[in-house]
Amino acid sequence: MTFDISIVLPAKNEAGNIEALLLDISRVMADADHEIIVVDDASTDQTRDVLARLRRRMPQLRVVCHQSSCGQSAAIRSGILAAKGRIIATLDADGQNPPENLPDLLRPCSMPPRATVSGLCRASGSGARIHVRNDGPRSSRTAFAAGFWATGSATAAAGSRHSRARSI
């Protein structure tokens, strides 16, 4: 079975946070075809017990367990490898990232592509440069947004549309 969205959460010793977070994710993603993958990185508290209890109530919840602590990056990798979604999002299991932001963050992934940002680099003293292949009417807006994001400057962003890529 495949899903539209897989949400991966690396977790270690999050027994006190994980239930509320998973219920919030389920609530905000209720209209989306999704799965939630929690990778327990060898927790020493009751995290696995909480997850086992929640799995009985949440069919979209999958749990991957590390037998020894491997760290956050390895936990994210394990979750991504287990994911069956077309789109993969990651959140920290400590609640640092509000699940309420997920729909807005994922919305652009469901829109048809209009432009491709194919390179981002920083030239010495002149800010970031973006190269955009023109795939439609929103290309220049995409270039501007990417340039503004990279530089924080509307002037640098506006001039970045046709710039050459250089090393950072």
From TrEMBL:
Residues 6-134 form the Glycosyltransferase 2-like domain. Pfam families: Glycos_transf_2 (PF00535). The keyword Glycosyltransferase applies. Keywords: Cell membrane, Glycosyltransferase, Lipopolysaccharide biosynthesis, Membrane, Transferase, Transmembrane, Transmembrane helix. InterPro entries: Glyco_trans_2-like (IPR001173), Glycosyltransferase_2 (IPR050256), Nucleotide-diphossugar_trans (IPR029044). The keyword Amino-acid biosynthesis does not apply. It comes from the Bacteria. SUPFAM superfamilies: Nucleotide-diphospho-sugar transferases. PANTHER family: UNDECAPRENYL-PHOSPHATE 4-DEOXY-4-FORMAMIDO-L-ARABINOSE TRANSFERASE, UNDECAPRENYL-PHOSPHATE 4-DEOXY-4-FORMAMIDO-L-ARABINOSE TRANSFERASE-RELATED. This is Glycosyltransferase family 2 protein. It comes from Paracoccus cavernae.
